[in-house]
Design goal:
The complex is a heterodimer of chains A (286) and B (317).
Chain A: E1 3-14, E2 21-32, E3 36-40, H1 47-55, E4 62-67, E5 70-71, E6 81-82, H2 94-106, H3 112-125, H4 141-154, E7 160-163, H5 171-188, E8 192-196, H6 199-205, E9 208-212, E10 220-225, H7 234-237, H8 241-257, H9 275-285
Parallel strand pairs in A: 3-8, 3-9, 6-7, 7-8
Antiparallel strand pairs in A: 1-2, 1-4, 4-5, 9-10
Chain B: H1 2-35, E1 39-40, E2 43-44, H2 48-86, H3 103-134, H4 136-149, H5 154-168, H6 178-204, H7 208-216, H8 221-259, H9 264-274, H10 279-308
Antiparallel strand pairs in B: 1-2
Helix pairs in contact in B: 2-10, 3-4, 3-6, 3-8, 3-9, 5-6, 6-8, 8-9, 8-10, 9-10
The chains are: A alpha/beta (286), B mainly alpha (317).
Chain lengths: 286, 317
């Protein structure tokens, strides 16, 4: 296996007025080239923290992330991020948003014509070539997210990081976006880490599903290999026994093994060293 | 469809216009009846018609002064030409016309002063505000100073400014008059703080996601400021500029009155000292003109903001 990204025994503690809060404890994950990984877990379990550490936006308290043999110290375009809220620059058109990234990453390596073709190619990949000159406030949420993906793809990242990219979209748009992403993945075969809340999305898109335990001190609970053949079709898979087995595995993990009962009074949970322990306490407190 | 929306729009516009005109008429009526009941040692308080007469009179005075000025230069030129014809060695002396400054001259002086002071403040406050907004340490260091100087009326600075300028600004051939420099610095001092504070707040409150985009792209500091910080904080920068300009215009008039620096304030003060039967209506005319110019300045900034800003909705009012 050709390992591109190695998340190596990462701990993450955030300073709080009441002392450090351990968000992640000993998270390790090796990712091969071209692999599509989903990170799934209850909200607040530290999925985004893992992604931010890989992106370089957070620094791990212990351990580290190695990309192609080099340790990650700061953010960079080789680890492009698709943010949950598209985060396009509102004063630039779709084309200009991608252009900013392309100019920054390739600079003089691409001639003006090459750069233009590359921007248009990436916008065409996400089916946004018809609205290149529209500004973010003139297009729908799904379209904005498409442009966000085009911007990330245009950086030709070694790893594409997606933080709940479709979380803010309605169900139909989300399904469209998932199909689009599979189509792009089929063509480019990027290495992807995607955070999701959506069990179907995880099974449909991933090669491996990494399920995280509840925080504090969250870690990788189980990893599920998804060996469904590609290209995948959501309609055909609906009756596929393997698909349904995987789906129920994830559901079991989330709702039996890592059952999280949201305390009605927000004070219930306190940082405790062992996550299983804390899980019980949360349940008991509720 | 388009026609319909257009006519709806024009109907809305017409309604606004009518209501505004009615408002003004009611105001004039109340002013006029109140004025005729107020008697001062300089005669009755000026009503709208007296003020309108004065406005016209002030314009006539200005035109007359211009005619005199033109005549002066013409005489001077003829005189010099004659002297040169008699004696080719003669170096003609050109003297400036030193007639009385008219109301319209004073308006121009005040406008030039406020514009220069405002621009100088913007040149200092906007870059500094960006630096303060980007850098928490700098913000912590500079914040107490801003908070202390912000509430100071710039007029309190005026004596200090005057003394410092007369001590420091000593050249034989000054490019600017000292009185102009005094007024300019006073205007700058009052424009500085709202612009500085609004710019730094605007810069500091840029969405974290956009900052992250910049980090992921590894934009250089300069590109970060140019491509992300500036466009994102333009609405707040303009809010600061509009506030500043409004305050500056008010303060300038007061400073001119207090320091006898040329400008509209001096015009008002001179008229007050004059104490003729026309003084009050001339002052009232000046008051209206000052207000109207202030209104135009604000509208001008708004138009500039509409032109510069990507976010057209932020400049709605």
């Amino acid at each position: 296996m050709n390992i591109v990204l190695d998340i190596d025994h990462v701990d993450m503690a955030f300073p709080t007025p009441k002392g450090p809060f351990t968000a992640l404890k000993d998270v390790s994950l090796k990712i091969a080239k071209g692999e599509f990984i989903s990170l799934i877990g209850h909200s607040g379990c530290g999925k985004s923290t893992v992604l931010n550490i890989v992106a370089g936006l957070h620094q791990a308290t212990k351990g580290g992330v190695v990309l192609n043999g080099k340790e990650v110290a700061e953010p960079g375009p080789e680890r492009a991020v698709v943010f949950q809220n598209h985060s396009l620059l509102p004063w630039l058109s779709a084309y200009e948003n991608v252009e900013l990234a392309v100019k920054q990453v390739f600079g003089r390596k691409k001639s003006k014509r090459e750069a233009r073709e590359w921007i248009e190619y990436n916008l065409a990949l996400v089916h946004m070539d018809h609205a290149m000159d529209k500004r973010p406030d003139e297009i729908s949420g799904g379209m904005k997210q498409r442009v966000g993906i085009a911007r990330a793809l245009a950086m030709q990242p070694d790893v594409l990081l997606m933080d709940e990219p479709f979380g803010a979209l309605d169900a139909l748009t989300r399904a469209h976006m998932q199909d689009s992403l599979m189509e792009i993945q089929n063509e480019l075969n990027n290495t992807v880490i995607m955070i999701t809340h959506d069990v179907d999305e995880a099974v449909l898109l991933s090669d491996r599903i990494v399920m995280m335990t509840n925080g504090p001190a969250a870690k990788v609970g189980e990893i599920l290999d998804v060996k469904l053949e590609r290209p995948r079709n959501r309609l055909a898979l609906a009756d596929d026994p393997e698909y349904n087995r995987l789906r129920s595995e994830v559901l079991k993990f989330l709702y039996e093994k890592q059952r999280k009962v949201e305390p009605i009074k927000a004070k219930a949970s306190k940082p405790v060293s062992a996550e299983k322990d804390s899980d019980k306490k949360v349940t008991a407190a509720a | 469809m388009m026609l319909k929306s257009w006519s709806a729009h024009s109907g809305e516009w017409l309604k606004t216009a009518i209501i505004s005109v009615v408002g003004i008429l009611v105001f004039l009526l109340m002013w006029s009846s109140a004025a005729s009941n107020i008697h001062t040692s300089l005669g009755a308080f000026p009503g709208p018609s007296a003020v309108a007469n004065q406005l016209h009179g002030l314009y006539v005075e200005h035109s007359a002064e211009r005619v005199k000025e033109a005549a002066f230069y013409k005489r001077q030129e003829e005189r010099n030409a004659k002297r040169v014809a008699v004696d080719p060695e003669y170096q003609p002396k050109v003297r400036k016309y030193t007639g009385k400054e008219t109301f319209i001259d004073q308006i121009l002086t005040s406008l030039i002063t406020v514009a220069s002071g405002f621009l100088l403040a913007a040149l200092i406050a906007i870059p500094l505000g960006i630096a303060v907004g980007l850098n928490k340490t700098l913000n912590t260091a500079i914040n107490p100073i801003i908070q202390t100087f912000k509430p100071v009326s710039p007029l309190a600075w005026l004596p200090l400014v005057t003394m410092v300028v007369s001590a420091v600004y000593t050249t034989d051939d000054p490019l600017f008059a000292k009185s102009f420099v005094n007024s300019l610095i006073t205007v700058t001092l009052c424009c500085l703080w709202p612009m500085l504070i609004n710019t730094s707040v605007g810069v500091a409150s840029i969405e974290q996601d956009l900052v992250n985009v910049s980090k992921v792209l590894r934009l250089s500091s300069l590109t970060h400021v140019r491509k992300i910080v500036l466009p994102a904080s333009i609405p707040m920068i303009f809010t600061g500029m509009r506030l500043s300009l409004g305050i500056a215009w008010m303060v300038l008039i007061a400073a001119e009155m207090l320091a006898q620096n040329p400008g509209l304030g001096k015009f008002v003060w001179d008229e007050f000292q004059n104490g003729s039967s026309e003084s009050l209506s001339r002052i009232m005319a000046a008051v209206l003109v000052i207000g109207f110019i202030g209104f135009l300045l604000d509208r001008g900034m708004l138009q500039l903001q509409r032109f510069v800003s990507w976010d057209k909705s932020s400049a709605a009012r």
